[in-house]
Specification:
This protein is of the alpha+beta class and 264 residues long. The protein has one domain: Alpha-Beta Plaits, CATH 3.30.70.100. It contains 8 helices and 10 strands. It has a 5-stranded antiparallel beta sheet. α5 runs antiparallel to α7.
């Protein structure tokens, strides 16, 4: 038995971004605008993770952090965004809108950017602090550049079967969002060709899945032999770090109010 798509399963969008090192504030402004446009067109932002120091890299670090100039990393992104729309038509309505067209004119603070669509297995959700506090806290992403199609098709199919059996095999639920080859390309600056995403309440549950014999024996050999894959667990919700400029402004405003109070 494999994990079958729910009747109300949605279309997901995976976004990967690398910021210009000298223009991170502008890059954040662009990404905030992208989030706003997704919501304006009926989409939901499930996860946006910018804080690499909070990432738990499970496998394939050399594919994210360049080990040397002779072996450039294929997935050297530092921001990941997972969003969802009702269907593919809704994705294209958002993507072809005038608002997104205008926003894309200001993407220069990003040195790389990819947006890919993938068929979901479940309805999407809006990632919030409250949801992360009471539900799933981590998203496990496996992002692959495929070197042989058939074995990796077997990989994503087997992933769904093992996810369906997880309560019996490892005693916990694998909340699988998608496990599939890419269904569409909007921007293609990272070689994403297959992707799996699952949500977990605790890191120990995630580790139970990742270290389970079925996963290690049935999935890992396919991934190592037929793909270049980056596997990472990211927080389901992150507090936005305020820029130093905003903190200075807030401090100046507070000091001004205090001074005026003393004068009064």
């Amino acid at each position: 038995m494999a994990w079958e798509p729910a009747p109300n399963a949605e279309q997901f969008v995976l976004g990967l971004f690398k910021k210009h090192p000298d223009r991170k504030r502008d890059a954040d402004r662009f990404l905030n605008g992208l989030e706003a446009k997704i919501r304006a067109y009926g989409g939901k932002v499930c996860v946006r993770s910018d804080q690499v120091d909070l990432w738990d890299i499970m496998d394939g670090k050399d594919h994210n952090v360049e080990p040397n100039h002779l072996n450039p990393a294929v997935f050297d992104f530092e921001t990941v965004l997972v969003a969802c729309f009702k269907d593919l038509e809704a994705v294209h309505s958002w993507w072809s809108s005038d608002q997104v067209f205008e926003l894309m004119k200001h993407r220069s603070p990003l040195t790389k950017m990819s947006l890919h669509t993938v068929d979901g297995l479940v309805p999407g959700f809006e990632g919030t602090k409250k949801r992360a506090a009471t539900g799933d806290k981590l998203m496990l992403l496996e992002i692959a550049k495929v070197e042989s199609f058939r074995p990796m098709q077997r990989y994503v199919d087997m992933y769904k079967r093992l996810a369906a059996k997880a309560p019996k095999d490892i005693g916990t639920i694998c909340n699988l969002l998608f496990s599939e080859g890419i269904s569409g390309v909007l921007v293609n600056e990272f070689p994403v060709q297959a992707v799996c995403a699952s949500c977990w309440r605790t890191r120990s549950d995630l580790i139970s899945w990742y270290e389970a014999p079925n996963y290690q024996q049935d999935l890992m050999p396919l991934r190592y032999d037929f793909a270049r894959c980056f596997t990472v667990a990211v927080p389901m919700y992150e507090e936005r770090k305020e820029s130093s400029e905003n903190l200075k402004r807030r401090g100046s405003a507070a000091a001004g109010m205090k001074l005026r109070g003393l004068q009064a």
